[in-house]
Structures are given as C-alpha cells and as structure tokens.
Design goal:
Layout lengths: L4 E7 L5 H11 L8 E8 L2 H5 L1 H8 L3 E6 L3 E3 L2 E3 L3 E8 L3 E6 L9 H14 L5 E6 L7 H12 L4 E5 L12 E3 L2 E3 L4 E6 L5 E5 L7 E11 L2 E5 L2 E2 H7 L18 E4 L7 E3 L1 E4 L5 E3 L8 E4 L4 H16 L7 E6 H6 L6 H11 L5 E6 L2 E6 L8 E6 L3 E5 L1
Parallel strand pairs: 2-3, 8-9, 22-23
Antiparallel strand pairs: 1-6, 2-6, 3-10, 4-5, 4-23, 7-12, 8-12, 9-24, 10-11, 13-26, 14-15, 14-21, 15-16, 15-20, 17-18, 17-21, 19-20, 22-26, 24-25
Length: 392
C-alpha cells in the first residue's frame, strides 16, 4: 500500500485570476486530501506577475513551494506557458516548508536558519529534502548542495534552480506560499517511511572525445589547467579553434564530463564563458584531481538519455508519483524542436496512470549513487545539462 498519494492540476489562464484559481480548484478533488499535504508549483513567470500564484496559494488549504520555469508538464498538460501543481498528501508522511532570508553571498546562515525552522516544525528527522533555489550570479549550485548536505547530515536533496523565459533569466523567482522571491531558497522536508529513488540522464558517454584528463588547477567553478596546461591550450590540442583574441570559439557548445574519482556517477558541467586570463567558467565546481572528458550535445541522443532514465525509474514497483527536472540547456540543445523532451516525458508517462510533474530548471540537484548502484549509499550533487528523476 502506498504511503503517499499525489494529485495534479494545471491552467493556462494567465490574466483572469479568478478563472485560473477556480480551474485549479475544480481539478483538485480535495476530498482525497489526507492529514498532511504540500503543494509543488511551477509556472511561466507571467502567472506570478498577474497575481495568479498569490491568489491560488491563498485559496489552498496547505503550504506551497515552487519556481518559475520555461516549460512544464503534469498529466493532461504539457507546454511552455502553463501553471502546474502537484499536491503530495499522506496520513503517515509529514511535510514541513522552510524559506530562507535573502541570500547575498555564499553564506550558510540563511540556509541553516531555513532548515532549522522547517526541522523544528517537523519534529523528527527528514528522509528527503525537496529544493527550489534562486538563480544568483554570485552563489553556485554546488554551494547550496554542499551546505545542505552538511546542515542535514546527508539527507538526500532533490530539486532545481529557478529559471524563466528571458535570455538572461532576470525574472526567475522562487515561490513560497504566494510570495515570489529573486534571492530566497524554499524547501520541503519530508519525514516518514519513504524511500526515494533517483535517476538521471545527461550526455551519452558514446559522445565523449578522447581519453580522460586530469584537472590540475581550478578555483571553484573556474577551470584553470588540465594535465598541467592552461585550459585554452588543452582545448586547442583537441582541435578547438581560437579567435583573434585567443579565446576558444564556441566554448559554450560542449560540456565537460567530470568524474570525481570517488566511485560515484560522473556529473556534467556546462561551460559558460572564458575569463580574460583564459580560465573556463563552468556551471558548477571543478575540483582538482577529478578526471575530465569532453562531451557533445546531440539532440537525438539527449532524448535517448531522457527516455532511458525514465524507463529505469518506471521499472520500479509501487510508485506514488514521479518528480522530474531537466536543464534549460537541454531545451536549447534541441534546436528547432525544443519541445521534444517534454513530449517524450508525456508520451512515456501518460499510459502509466502515475501522477507526475516535470519542469525545466537552471541547474539540477540530485543524489548520485556509486557506479554499481548498491543499496542506499548516495552523495548529493549539483548537475548541469541533466534530466533528473525522483520516484516516491
């Protein structure tokens, strides 16, 4: 018997607040709500600006957390300009929401306060953290993941960094109980006999270029030298071209695959830019001593990694619901057919009858297992260009 149930609802009504709220409420059979409930909401940013998010959260009898996004899906709905809601409800699993104060730098204070407040309300140790984090230029996703791993004593952490439809993501917001925030972190702690399972698909390893290389110098998310050589020289040796100013051409069109050499599954790092001194600025930390390979983004193979990860997840028994986040970089890598991934998810999920929620993210938080995936041993990690799945 399932410990938890999930209900879903959606609307495309951005401008008529009353109509949007009543559409969601009509879809949610509130007679099915059990003793404890929490809402997970993702939406196109206009739903926050128009007042729909605030009015909806005010109308619901439970707490709600979430984020703006560029595209999302629940049963019966998949698109770029929707609001989607998943409600987790249970008599035996309890939920507690935390919201940090403003985050101005990589200071663990606001995160610790949010976690402790949520933990105090929960009254027992959590089995899972669901995270919605702000997209900040001066605070990295690895900092969030590392900090909560330390604060919680290693509780699995699954979630996303907020994103929106603008090219610079300047309207991306975290949602908590109707409030929308550029610089705050919202989380849900789940406590009870739940055993979350995690799956991910990133870039097919068939697309790796050449052999593994060693990271020999880095500073946080800036990769400085590989195999003892400046990163620009290392890339030129692999055949990448430089422009007149010595910058690698198209540096952001290929990702790095990073193996921590600690027995866990490798992670993907997007490359955003090059600094004037030639370092590569990546979408997450690049630790010295890690092995590095170069990947290529191929649209067909990207869809294969999505369907492969989801097929593995759906092979489990007694599934209450499936939560999925996928990197906005995957959306853009699909080129002229950017909705292919969301359609693949819908195609695979619709026949199952299992409640699900999919949304695009600006960075992914998902535990990784050892390469043989034995037992429950996991390490929380931050990912780029990755499709992540949590099965409850």
């Amino acid at each position: 018997m399932s410990m938890m149930k999930a209900l879903t609802a959606h609307t495309n009504e951005i401008d008529d607040v009353e109509a949007a709220v009543s559409e969601i409420l009509e879809q949610l059979n509130r007679e099915l709500l059990l003793a404890n409930s929490v809402g997970l909401l993702t939406c196109y940013e206009d739903f926050a600006a128009s007042g729909v998010v605030k009015a909806l959260c005010d109308a619901l009898p439970f707490e709600v957390v979430g984020s703006t996004t560029l595209g999302n899906a629940v049963p019966g709905s998949a698109g770029m300009m929707s609001l989607t809601l998943m409600v987790l409800t249970s008599d035996v699993v309890s939920f507690s929401v935390g919201l940090s104060g403003p985050i101005a730098a990589e200071d663990e204070g606001p995160l610790r306060a949010a976690y402790q407040a949520a933990l105090a309300k929960l009254g027992r140790g959590p089995s899972l953290i669901l995270s919605f984090a702000p997209l900040l230029m001066n605070v990295g996703g690895d900092f969030y993941v590392r900090t909560f791993f330390e604060i919680s004593g290693g509780v699995p952490n699954f979630g996303m960094i907020s994103v929106d439809h603008n090219s610079d993501y300047h309207e991306s917001k975290v949602i908590c109980n109707g409030g929308t925030y550029y610089d705050r972190y919202a989380l849900v702690l789940l406590a009870g006999e739940i055993k979350p399972e995690f799956f991910m698909g990133s870039i097919s390893t068939e697309k790796l270029l050449r052999e593994k290389n060693l990271v020999t110098a880095s500073a946080g998310n800036q990769l400085q030298t590989v195999n003892g050589k400046p990163v620009a020289d290392f890339l030129t040796e692999l055949g990448f071209a430089k422009d007149d100013e010595g910058m690698i051409i198209g540096i952001n069109t290929f990702p790095f695959i990073l193996d921590y050499n600690d027995g866990t599954t490798p992670v993907v790092r997007a490359v955003f830019a090059q600094t004037p001194d030639g370092s590569a600025v990546c979408g997450g930390d690049i630790p010295v001593g890690a092995s590095l390979s170069i990947g290529r983004m191929d649209a067909d193979e990207m869809i294969e990694t999505t369907s492969g990860a989801l097929a593995s997840a759906l092979a489990l028994r007694d599934i209450s619901c499936v939560l999925m986040f996928s990197c906005i970089g995957r959306y853009f890598a699909l080129g002229y057919d950017p909705t292919r991934e969301i359609e693949k998810v819908r195609e695979m999920m619709e026949g199952t009858g299992i409640p699900y929620h999919f949304a695009y993210s600006g960075g992914e938080m998902c535990p990784v297992y050892g390469k043989e995936r034995h037992g429950d041993a996991h390490t929380n990690r931050y990912h780029n260009i990755t499709f992540i799945v949590c099965v409850l």
